[in-house]
TrEMBL record:
Protein name from the UniProt record: TRAP transporter small permease protein
Lineage: superkingdom: Bacteria
Transmembrane helix recorded as keyword: yes
Keyword Cell inner membrane attached: yes
Any matching Pfam family: DctQ
Signal peptide residue numbers: none
Subcellular location: Cell inner membrane; Cell membrane
Family: Belongs to the TRAP transporter small permease family.
Length: 164
């Protein structure tokens, strides 16, 4: 499979993740709005914060693969401004690989945390929402992010090797 085809497939995966993340953001906004409106009449939604916490945490993670594929992360280039273009590109490629590794470790730890929450049957206080759902969804988002970050790192190394 060529890099271009792989980029297309990973970008589609990232878009699907981002759409799911956007849906969770809309859910959080809807629950918050409904709770505030009901609260004005003395009957806020019980457990609204539990839903919002779960939705927002997972939504952020699900949006990161698309951010990675589009190169939309915040870039601090204060220290690399003085480097030649090839040196800055090399450092960027190495840092993308490090990011892929760190995100993979986070995905692994989230998966273990999700299993532990499932095994211990941990639930939220008011709605008794199982905590493992959030961990599992975040682990899937982190795994997708790690795949995208690893691809972008490889793509950066390949581009670095090509003559200018």
């Amino acid at each position: 499979m060529s890099l271009a085809a792989l980029r297309g497939a990973l970008t589609r995966l990232a878009v699907i993740c981002a759409l799911l993340g956007g849906a969770l953001l809309l859910l959080a906004v809807g629950v918050t709005t409904a709770s505030v409106l009901r609260g004005a009449f003395g009957t806020p939604i019980l457990g609204d914060s539990e839903i919002v916490e779960l939705a927002l945490g997972v939504a952020v993670v699900l949006c990161m693969p698309l951010c990675e594929m589009k190169g939309a992360h915040v870039l601090v280039d204060f220290f690399t401004q003085a480097l030649p273009a090839r040196g800055a590109a090399g450092l960027d490629a190495v840092m993308r690989a490090v990011a892929a590794l760190v995100v993979a470790i986070l995905a692994w730890r989230l998966a273990i945390g999700g299993y532990n929450m499932w095994d211990r049957e941990r639930d939220s206080m008011f709605l008794q929402l199982p905590f493992w759902w959030g961990y599992a969804a975040a682990a899937v988002g982190m795994a997708a992010w790690s795949l995208c970050a690893a691809f972008v790192a490889v793509e950066s190394f390949v581009r670095l090797r090509r003559p200018a």
